[in-house]
Amino acid sequence: MIKLFGSPHSSAHRCYWVLEELNIPYERQPLDMRQREHKAEAYLKLNPNGKIPCIIDGNFVLWESVAINHYLALKNGPQLLGKTIEEQALVQQWILWSQGELQLPLVSILIQVMFMPEDKKNPSIVEDAKKKLQPLNAILNTQLQDKNYVVGDTFTLADLTLASVVRINEMTNISLADYPNIQKWYQAVTKRTAYQKVEALPR
Description:
The chain is α+β, with helices and mostly antiparallel strands. It has two domains: 75 residues, 3-Layer(aba) Sandwich (Glutaredoxin), CATH 3.40.30; 113 residues, Glutathione S-transferase Yfyf (Class Pi), Chain A, domain 2, CATH 1.20.1050.10. It is built from eight helices and four strands. The chain has a four-stranded mixed β-sheet with strand order 2-1-3-4, covered by helices on one side. α4 runs parallel beside α6. The longest helix is centred in the middle third of the chain and has 31 residues. The radius of gyration is 17 Å and the shape is globular. The model has no long low-confidence stretch (mean pLDDT 94).
């Protein structure tokens, strides 16, 4: 059985989502971040970065959420990767874009809003990040015009990964009212049974 390290309400969320989508049995391995268990010697032997998530599948160890999900899909649900070579390439394109572009300003906001002590918060960081988000949200909103999914006509890892990033807007109370296509798509994909199962898991 696969062991997944990390809380379902952390960056491991998207890995839990894939496991639930594909009905893969798994065992949760929570780490107490406040106690710095992710920096403990035993865990660093699995992931030398000291970050989550990380999985153990038999004797195979893998970290980085996007790599984990690609592995899980290759092994258990290739339909999540796209139906054709072209779709597979587009799925990878949007996944890489989500991590290298969209996620960066959102994480900057998340850190300021949820993790930074009041006396150290910097409103200008949030404002700058919001400005960077505008053209990025516009790109995704255009992509989703008259579409149910980001790539092709079925749910793929592109949808799952992007939704896990767009979710940060919800966590930080950022409105997506100016981007109706994103709103409609996000509301639809997060109604999926697998997503709801992850949301119901204890922290």
